[in-house]
Amino acid sequence: MPLWTDLSQHITDATGAPFQARRQHSVSGGCINSAYVVEDGRQRYFVKTNTLDKAAMFAAEAAGLQAILASRTLRAPHPICHGVADGNSYLVLEFIEMENGSGRSAAFLGEQLAAMHRVTTSRYGWDIDNTIGATSQINTWREDWIHFYGEHRLRFQLDLAARNGYPLQAKGEKLINRLPDFFTSYQPHPALLHGDLWGGNWGEDPQGKPVIFDPALYYGDREADLAMTELFGGFPPPFYAAYAAAYPLDAGYATRKDLYNLYHILNHFNLFGGGYGGQAARLIDRLLAEL
Ligand code: ADP
């Protein structure tokens, strides 16, 4: 059954009438999926599609957006439905008109991200595994953050990098063994994280409010979210000022931020190859030298 026909079985308007897609056009901007805006003249949806094997990825993205919405902090698109149709998997989201964030919305983003990070639970991880880009992300619950970060984040990506032709395990193993040294005077708490908070995953709605989307959500050290905002830029100074005013950071963040961004650099090597492998190797050397 064609995808656009399938949507009419899952989406109804306020009167109960099925959604009848009349127009759709593809949009660019995403890294991983094909994306479309689909409308019937009254309602508009943002639809992502991928191959059949990505159905679980979309289910996890929908659950991640639900968790952000349940935190009643930042705006995120409401997931409408997800499934498989026409030989593809798909995810339908509320359509939100978005522009690049301004200083004002960035300050609000900082304040509200701090509020989201105050949503806590008793362990690190999440109920389901998800993806970071297209790479699997393991979220098996653990009591201990150092163990969680060492095994489910660093070792997972290091093993993948070796399979992708860049064996960094000897260096990586040294770093994993020394992880406790980064936490001698700092005790993290499980915080609700976006998990993939780079500049391309937030925008500003027509009311000037920030919107976050495309999460790789789990409960982890909040510094991991902050670190990623610094990796590729896209977060103006008012974001950091508002975050720090709402939820001050520990001084050791300056060192741990590199440790947390190592995960994303390894992931970029595993997704895109190229110079990210050498960058990860140099970063591991620097982190070991700093200890
Ligand atoms: P991918 O999963 O492929 O990386 P994204 O979720 O990052 O795709 O979305 C790609 C782009 O589409 C974003 O940069 C944003 O501009 C736009 N976008 C994402 N979600 C929505 C939405 N719910 N409504 C309108 N535009 C959106």
Characterise the protein shown here.
The protein is an alpha+beta fold and 291 residues long. The chain folds into 2 domains: 92 residues, Phosphorylase Kinase, domain 1 (2-Layer Sandwich), CATH 3.30.200; 192 residues, Alpha-Beta Complex (Aminoglycoside 3'-phosphotransferase, Chain: A, domain 2). The protein is 42% helix and 18% strand. The protein has a 5-stranded antiparallel sheet with strand order 1-2-3-5-4, with helices on both faces. Strands 6-7 form a two-stranded antiparallel sheet. The chain has a two-stranded antiparallel ribbon with strand order 8-11. α4 packs antiparallel against α5. The longest helix has 20 residues. Adenosine-5'-diphosphate (ADP) binds next to β3 and β5.
- Determine the CATH superfamily of the largest domain: Aminoglycoside phosphotransferase (APH), C-terminal lobe
CATH class of the largest domain: Alpha Beta
The end-to-end distance, rounded to whole angstroms, is 58 Å
Determine the CATH topology of the largest domain: Aminoglycoside 3'-phosphotransferase, Chain: A, domain 2
- Oligomerization state: single chain
Major sheet: order of its strands? 1-2-3-5-4
CATH architecture of the largest domain: Alpha-Beta Complex
Give the total of beta strands. Answer: 11
Observed structural traits:
two-stranded antiparallel sheet, 18% strand, Phosphorylase Kinase, domain 1, 42% helix, 9 helices, alpha+beta, five-stranded antiparallel β-sheet, 291 residues, Aminoglycoside 3'-phosphotransferase, Chain: A, domain 2, binds adenosine-5'-diphosphate
